Amino acid sequence: MRMTNATIRAVNGLTARWAAEVSGGTVFSAAGVWPLLGFLADGAGGGARRELAEAVGLPADRAAAAAREVLAAAGALRGLETALGLWTQRTLELREAWQARLPAEAHGVLTGDPAADQQALDAWAVERTGGLVERMPVAVRPDTEMVLASALALRTRWLRPFEETALTPEGGPWADRTLQGLWRPSRVLDRVGVADTPRGHVTELKVLGDNALDVHLLLGEEGMTPGQVLAAGVDLLARRHPVVAGPQLPYGEVGPGLRVRRERRMTPEPPTLDVTTVAYGVTADHNLLEHHALFGLTTARLDLPGHFPGISALPLYVGSAGQSALARFGARGFEAAAVTVIEMAAAGGAPPPLRYLTTTVEAVFDRPFGFLALHRHSRLVLAAGWVTDPEPFPEDEVT
User: Fold this and answer.
1) Which of 141, 227, 293, 394 is the 20 to 30 Å CA partner of 181?
2) pTM: predicted TM-score of the whole model, two decimal places
3) Closest CA to 254 of 358, 362, 366, 359
4) What residues form DSSP beta bridges with 252?
5) What percent of the chain is helix, strand and coil (3-state, nearest 5)?
6) What is the pLDDT of residues 234-257, one digit of tens each?
7) In which domain, by residue range, is 224 found?
8) Does a structural domain hold residue 351?
């Protein structure tokens, strides 16, 4: 996977900033929206160009090349499917230089019939995510001139699967619920560690996939927000905080959900890492314009000319922008998908209305926690989220 460290830092930086604004159970993909913002920054002007460059984290004149870099590198990964789509009205003439920076196969045509166009775009979302996302997160309108979209779908199988079991937490928000628990032992203690961050200690557990797509589970101290925990996870990828790995942990309660104890056994045995967590499925729809400053769309969303002179001579503004995402974590593997869409209309002049003894290390994730799905070698985060409502234990198996 060939991506510069600057590009990886920029994408992961947007993940951390987005995490600071989420609440409740959710899933999102900054890697899905980041290339779209990069292409928009390349064709933007004035205040929109400055804001988009700030959101991307790179100069605007480098943004399109970096966006192509992300799409090409991600598309080469085993277990990850990516796609970019561009649809325009037949009467919209794009600047040749801007269009040339997008994949040649990406460009389609809008018919002018919103219902038919919506059906075609929804079918694209289904096809590009293998059915994980069933529709586009924004609607085609009669005045839609251009739609720019990305799709991302990843699947991995654990190198070592979990055993399914019933789990009833003794305390916390999930107390007295019978959940679909997942358990497995391991001899590899360095899969877990405790980080000392400015906001509190965070336990990180690495669950490895068979195609170098991994999931890191993150449990913070009680009282830490989802944004603080997820941002800490991103910082750990960049090695910004000290971490005490499993083999170096002292005995006792050593971190959130983490305990090291000494046990007597009949025969000599090597140290063990016992992991208990929960199966979960998370879905979320995000209106990106509700967080317009985060995505550099504050100026671009105003129905005024001058935002995107590098895309078309026709004045354009961002009419709507959204993302639909999901993630599923089970005994044998993980899958996630996101479809991100930016819909643009012809600018007029009035602002649009606002819408929308042997040592055993025990790691237990039995209260809300975060997760990052990432490429192991580059450390690029592909999806992130927060788990508040795990899967229940099947009723027909409760005795």
Assistant:
1) 227
2) 0.92
3) 362
4) 260
5) 25, 35, 35
6) 999 999 999 999 899 889 999 999
7) 179-279+358-397
8) no
